[in-house]
Design goal:
alpha/beta, Alkaline Phosphatase, subunit A, Alkaline_phosphatase_core_sf, 2 domains, nine-stranded mixed β-sheet, elongated
Length: 581
């Protein structure tokens, strides 16, 4: 009887009219290699298994803080591994493989969130928010492009995407490998799981520690719990904040009753990027900044100006400057992107819009950091906004900063402040030269030679590059201090040069610099100063108990940044008339 071989029963059979299929050839070669190299095969299997175990255990114990990346964090027993092993041993083959892939991907996602937490804690002093913070990743990519160049930013973006896909894939494969190992040695694995569970419970009950860390770990479960709580709190906060934003102590105040004691004054609100308490108190930074403030105070005093200074606690840290700006101007605590969007879409009165509402001021914004459409202009009540492309600058960028502060202020004088008008001027000016990465930093030049800014070309080329300081905390502190000195010098010299009897300047920091500069656990306080020639202007805030001069005393009053709007409006004669819609 002749044997028949069908395609289904012999998929690797040779075709009578041609060579064997590629899959059959590959399988045949692999089989021969396994037979010829059993020791090598066994070594590869064990190596793969060990690497899979290290990857999974490392991910289960991986912290979410950079300072916590210490060896003692990885000498613990994760309860999630014990529970996972028990589940895998109880499942049939197909559900087990599905569970292995899903849990591997899930563990990869938790690891990515831990890394994001590290970055956000390092730069913004808070963890990553799953609901709100995805759009900030685009800002981070733009920051890298501005600081390091388009090619570097593109390369970094591609590298991040590849690493994420690789991590998710490897974690899934590692879980499949370990689940197969458990199934192949079910009896031994069951005993080992029971022993591990007993050890974990005992260590947990007795509080056993190794190198100062508890042996019994619930790290991944804790990370998931934290992320879940953030999501729930964010959704709840959104609903509650909408109600808060509808209540406004000055929302129904008639225009004639808003800031009557400042009528006829040119009022300027200026934010200095990253100008925080560390600039005045950190021993590695403060001497240079203190000297600049002392020199500025003396020069302004000679020019007839007087100043008072205090502290505000910012709603943000390390970045997201717009949260500090909006908190100051709205009188609401805006510490996340959802709150920011809510306020920008509301009728809640901003401090700057109060001036516009009176009809007694022309209102403008000078925003050299804005390089695209800025719909917030309407909320802030600015008749016109001058962005990075409308100030006539033809010089080079200084990393993220589109132009030196000295030039931005001179352009403000030339195009806006120095022109004759029928009304006084209310201005909001954002200074950006002290924005991280604090390299390259501009230098002061002769005000009469500023022109279109082209003279900054050689200065920018000769200055430090971001790559030379970005990973060095000491150099970052030094250059940060220099950048703040530059911004303060630009502003005080501008006021000395162009200020009038009717000029009222309020300037403050938007937030502290990142932890690499300000230090772990630094306060969120920023300095704020009010400068004017008219003694009546300063007498209105005598009850604030601020320090004389541009430098607030360490024990000067500290207010939440959200308190400033109402205190300022009240001090200058505004009548509260609440609105609730």
């Amino acid at each position: 009887m002749t044997d028949t071989i069908t395609e289904s029963s012999a998929p690797e059979a040779e075709d009578a009219d041609g060579p064997p299929p590629a899959r059959a050839t590959l399988r045949s070669r692999l089989a021969r290699w396994r037979t010829a190299h059993p020791t090598t095969l066994r070594t590869l299997r064990w190596t793969t298994t060990i690497l899979a175990a290290v990857l999974v255990l490392g991910a289960l114990l991986f912290p979410n803080r950079l300072v916590a990346l210490q060896p003692n964090r990885f000498t613990r027993i994760p309860v999630e591994a014990i529970i996972g092993a028990a589940v895998m041993l109880a499942l049939p083959r197909r559900p087990r493989l599905v569970m292995a892939v899903l849990s591997g991907v899930g563990l990869g996602v938790v690891t990515i969130l831990n890394v994001l937490d590290m970055g956000f804690l390092e730069y913004l002093g808070r963890g990553f928010n799953l609901v709100l913070d995805w759009e900030l990743l685009d800002d981070a990519q733009a920051y890298v492009e501005d600081s390091m160049g388009k090619a570097t930013a593109l390369g970094a973006t591609i590298a991040v995407v590849v690493l994420i896909l690789a991590l998710l894939s490897l974690m899934a494969l590692a879980m499949v490998r370990l689940s197969n190992l458990l199934a192949d040695h079910r009896q031994t694995a069951t005993r080992g799981t029971l022993i591990a569970a007993t050890v974990w419970v005992t260590c947990s009950a007795l509080g056993v520690q190794v190198s100062g860390m508890p042996v019994a770990s619930e790290r991944t479960a804790g990370a998931v719990k934290v992320q879940t709580r953030r999501v729930v709190d964010t959704l709840r906060d959104e609903a509650e904040f909408r109600k808060v934003a509808k209540v406004d102590a000055f929302g129904a105040t008639p225009p004639a009753q808003l800031v009557p004691d400042l009528r006829g004054k040119d009022v300027i609100f200026t934010f200095i990027e990253s100008y925080g308490r560390s600039a005045l108190e950190d021993p590695a930074i403060a001497p240079g900044v203190d000297k600049t403030l002392t020199t500025g105070t003396e020069a302004l005093t000679k020019a007839g100006f007087h100043a008072k200074s205090g502290w505000l606690t910012s709603a943000t840290y390390g970045g997201s400057s717009w949260l500090g700006h909006s908190t100051t101007m709205s009188g609401l605590w805006i510490d996340n992107q959802q709150r920011y969007r809510t306020v920008m879409a509301s009728d809640h009165l901003s401090l700057t819009k109060a001036f516009q509402k009176t009809g007694a001021w022309d209102t403008v914004g000078v925003m050299p950091g804005v390089q695209k459409g800025w719909p917030e202009q309407e909320y802030y009540g600015l008749d016109r906004v001058y962005n990075a492309f409308q100030l006539g600058y033809q010089g080079p960028k200084f990393s993220w900063s589109t132009m030196p502060d000295q030039y931005a202020l001179e352009a403000f004088q030339r195009q806006i402040h120095g022109k004759k008008r029928d009304k006084p001027l209310m201005s909001e000016v954002i200074l950006t030269s002290s924005h991280q990465p604090w390299a390259p930093i501009p230098k002061m030049v002769d005000w009469n030679r500023l022109g279109d800014g082209s003279l900054f070309g050689p200065i920018q080329k000769a200055a430090l590059k971001p790559s030379e300081i970005i990973t060095n905390s000491t150099r970052s502190k030094q250059e940060y201090g220099k950048s703040v000195q530059y911004s303060l010098t630009s502003l005080t010299q501008w006021l000395e040069r162009y200020g009038t009897d009717d000029t009222v300047l309020v300037f403050l920091g938007d937030h502290q610099p990142i932890a690499r500069v300000s230090g772990t656990g630094a306060s969120r306080d920023v300095p704020i100063s009010l400068v004017a020639k008219d003694p009546d202007v300063l007498s209105k805030i005598a009850s604030w108990n601020w320090t004389d001069g541009l430098k607030p005393a360490p024990d000067a009053p500290v207010w939440k940044m959200s308190a400033f709007r109402d205190r300022f409006l009240t001090a200058y004669g505004s009548t509260p008339r609440p609105s609730t819609s």
